[in-house]
Amino acid sequence: MTDTPDTLRSRSHWAVIGLFLIAAGGVLLLARTFLMPLILAFLLSLTFSPVRRFFKRTGLPDAISAGIIVLSLVSLCAVAAGGLAGPVQSYIDNGPSIMRDVEIKLRGISDLVAKVSDATEKVDELTDTDAEGPKVAVDTGPGLFTQAVMSVPYVMAQAVLTLVMLFFLIASGDMFYEKLVAVSPTFKDKRRAIRIVYDIERKISRYFLTITVINAGLGAAVGLALWALGMPNPVLFGVLAFALNFIPFIGALAGVALTFAIGIVSFDTVGAAGLAAATYFVLTSIEGQLVTPYAVGRSLNLNPVAVFVAVAFWGWAWSVVG
Questions:
Q1: How many CB atoms lie within 10 A of CB 240?
Q2: In 3D, which of 155, 282, 158, 161 has the Cα closest to residue 229?
Q3: pTM for the full model?
Q4: Residue 168 and residue 125: Cα distance in Å, rounded?
């Protein structure tokens, strides 16, 4: 049975769509260094557009409004970094002693792991043949801390590019909206285009503002809870909870793991460290299962499976920014 022309056209249509998606995915991966700061700057410009319009109604030019917004962001990041530099530097300087303390307190688990490793080696010896193959040297590459230090110039360059692009986007004012209106053929289309753009802008701005407020509340709750438990540097963990919670799923798990690791060093028992980590986990679970769905879910009707797939894909493609 031969295919009809309509069937062939339909198959070619879907084939073209599939090839386009594959090509688009390849471009997103290859050009992520260039695209990430641009898209992040564009989203930030939409978020701060209501602030720019407020300044414009007071008679302030868009360029000065852009400078105020960008300088405020830079100042806020500088103050946060300066306040957290001391505790972070202390943990870095005491790294060897921290590792020794962790090893001592987790010795029971280490002994169990060592026994399992010895048993595995014995099984390998029993199943190994007499023939010796060539030994291959495995290069484990630089450590995690070394990779983090090496990535600092890259992150700084991306941040500078994002801020510069954000300044020009905000300083351009409503230029892009005017261009959109200019290319619309009829007056009805012009009104519809402006209404759609303003609606998108308002929803994105409201979403980011809501998420920021929720994450700030979570950071304050985590800091106060860990302070009550006797955890050192609770402000540091509060700020980390605020920042990490912008990363769905992975951010909360990273915060719990970090709290447990530092708790092992700070407390006398592993149980106390587990209590601190469990407290962090409970607070993030309340935020993720109750607070955020109540505050955001009423205005965003999203499929949880689609959200998870989207987060997984963009996290794989563009790391934390994705």
A1: 22
A2: 282
A3: 0.65
A4: 66
Are 287 and 194 in contact by the 8 Å Cβ rule? The answer is no
Q: What is the DSSP letter of 287?
A: I
Among the listed residues 128, 143, 131, 292, the one whose alpha carbon sits nearest the alpha carbon of residue 207: 292
Nearest to 168 by CA among 44, 4, 270, 74: 44
**Single-letter code of the amino acid located at 160:** V
Over the stretch 149-200, which tens digit does the pLDDT of each residue have?
566 677 778 888 888 888 888 888 777 777 777 777 777 777 887 788 778 7
* Amino acid occupying residue 259: T
Q: Which residues of 253-285 are buried (b: 16+ CB within 10 A; e: fewer)?
A: eebbebbbebbbbbbeebebbebbbebbbebbe
Closest-CA residue to 289 (of 248, 238, 239): 248
Token reading at 245: 């919670």
